[in-house]
Structure formats: C-alpha cells, structure tokens
Amino acid sequence: MIHEVDEVLKALLSGGALAGSGIDVTFEAPTRDWAARRNGPVVNAYLYDIREDVHRRQRGQLPVVDERDVVVKRRQPPRWFRLSYLLTAWTKQPQDEHRLLSAVLATLIPRELLPPSELPGALGELGMAVPLSVAGIQTESRSLAEIWSALGGELKPSLDLVVTAPFPAYPEYDAGPPVTEGAVVRVRDMDGSGRADGERAHRPRQVAAAREARKDALRRRSTGGGS
Prior knowledge:
- By secondary structure, this protein is of the alpha+beta class.
- The protein has 2 domains: 2-174, no CATH class; 185-222.
- The protein is 29% helix and 26% strand.
- The chain has helices at 2-14, 32-37, 94-108, 121-125, 144-151, 204-222; strands spanning 24-26, 42-52, 62-65, 71-75, 79-90, 113-114, 130-134, 159-167, 172-174, 185-186, 201-202.
- A 6-stranded mixed β-sheet has the order 1-2-5-8-7-6. A 3-stranded antiparallel β-sheet has the order 3-4-9, with no helix packed on it.
- The longest helix is centred in the last third of the chain and has 19 residues, at 204-222.
- Residues 196-202 have low confidence and may be disordered.
C-alpha cells in the first residue's frame, strides 16, 4: 500500500505545474550525504511518519460480491493510515527552491481527494477515495526541527504532506450460500415439555396465502357472492 501511494505522489509531483520541467522526484532521506551527491534540481518527498488514523476505524464485516451481485465472501473494513511526507526542493539558489515549492503547492492544493480511478493496484481495487492535505497544521508528535536534526542537516523550507490511505484487512471469510427458503416458526406449549399437540410449522408464504384466501372469502360474503 505504501509503495502505491509513492507511485501516486510521483505522478502528481512530476505532472501539474512541473510537467515538462525534467525535475526529478525522489523519496530518499534528505541527509547531508544525499544532498552532496545530487547532480541537479530535485523535489524530495521523504516519508517520515506512519500511524493509524483511529478515528476512521470501523467494526463489523463488509460483503464481497461477485459479478452476479451475490455475496460470496466477507471481510473486515480496511484500516486507515496517515502517511506523512516532508516535501523539499533542492537547487543551487534559494529563489529557485522557492519557485519549485510554489509549483508543488499549485499542483497539490486542488487535489484534496484522489478518486479510486487514479489509484494503482490494490489501493484502487478497494474503491475508496484517498484524502490528501498539504501544508496543514502538523499533528504528529515530532516537529520538523527534530526531523531535520535527526537527518543531520540544516533546517530548510518544506511542505508537510499527509496522505490518509486505506490498508485492506485480511483474511477474507467465505460466506454461506444465499437463502432460498422461508423461515420456519414453531409454537410449543408454555411448559416446553416434549412435542405438544398444538405444535405447528408456519412457513411465511403459506401463511400469507392462507391470509389472502380468508380475506377473499370475507369479501365474497359481504357482497353476497358466497355461501
């Protein structure tokens, strides 16, 4: 699931306002050694935090249907995870980096919700839209200054991007065959001992047919059409 989110982000960042610019998009940790090795302008999307969005957790089971719209399996609802990326631009001049960050913002701001048709692999097969937020209020436990300190680099202008993606829950359970017969209702004596003389099996279709027959008989009698 995480690598599929990476694919979506790479396609988004490479297109939009950056389309045709030839600027590379990478996902490596922007350490001091990495910065020294780069050869040209780069937009870096570093995944620095993964945690479950517990507010989206659901209980119960979801049906899985076949091409005939018949329930064949059941599975648990997917779990949602917040993937937090640190977006930075790397060039030789600060003004160029600011232009790149502006282009990234212009590309991501309109994309608050990614439809399933734009999602690859198992992520798209779930049929759920994926929310995306950029440059919002940071809610993770670590500050950006702490992240840069852990990377061994100097603080740099950056954008905080959060993608909340569903992760399918396994396993799936086979569902029983569809119900083709009505339920049976049995009536016993109050003491519940043994089979009572008054025990009866009522099938819904038979009961409904008998009820309609009685109604027809009463209507005929009220109109004089029956004995």
